[in-house]
């Protein structure tokens, strides 16, 4: 049981780190440009230098929503990690990690909403690029989506023996 708890803890920490990287780094969409490779993220557009990401007025609300949901997912994931540690030392044997699992499900929903909005509104849009593809941050966000769902289900069914 101790090995299972340690494995869940390590995967949870990896998920938090990947959420930080995918939200902060600016490689959600990548495409060739006249100066090399251009990449855009949630915050900046990088070509040779990085500048603030500019979007059209009707896409601005969508970008703000993606930014907000990705930040919320980080917050909920960190809260769930803290709650896991607290519950690990305070729960009696045989109790379940319901609170931690529920918080991770909220994190999972935030990731789902944020990445889905980005997929629907911004796929293939890199300024000064003719053809683009998804970058590693976009892929990391979907990996975090899977990990957070698996972790949340494990928390909900896990008994402390």
Automatic annotation (TrEMBL):
It is found in: Membrane. GO terms for cellular component: plasma membrane. It is a multi-pass membrane protein. The chain crosses the membrane at residues 7-29, 65-85, 97-118, 138-158. It comes from the Eukaryota. The keyword Transmembrane helix applies. InterPro entries: PMP-22/EMP/MP20-like, PMP22/EMP/MP20/Claudin, PMP22_EMP_MP20. Coiled coil: none annotated. Keywords: Glycoprotein, Membrane, Transmembrane, Transmembrane helix. Belongs to the PMP-22/EMP/MP20 family. This is Epithelial membrane protein 1. It comes from Cochlearius cochlearius.
């Amino acid at each position: 049981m101790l090995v299972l708890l340690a494995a869940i803890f390590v995967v949870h920490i990896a998920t938090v780190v990947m959420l930080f990287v995918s939200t902060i780094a600016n490689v959600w969409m990548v495409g060739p440009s006249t100066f090399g490779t251009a990449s855009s993220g949630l915050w900046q557009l990088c070509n040779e230098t990085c500048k603030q990401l500019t979007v059209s007025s009707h896409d601005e609300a969508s970008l703000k929503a993606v930014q907000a949901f990705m930040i919320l997912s980080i917050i909920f994931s960190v809260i769930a990690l803290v709650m896991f540690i607290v519950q690990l030392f305070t729960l009696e044997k045989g109790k379940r990690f319901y609170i931690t699992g529920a918080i991770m499900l909220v994190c999972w929903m935030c990731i789902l909403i944020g990445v889905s909005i980005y997929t629907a509104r911004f796929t293939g849009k890199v300024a000064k690029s003719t053809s683009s593809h998804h970058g590693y941050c976009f892929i990391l966000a979907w990996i975090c989506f899977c990990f957070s769902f698996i972790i949340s289900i494990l928390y909900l069914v896990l008994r402390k023996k």
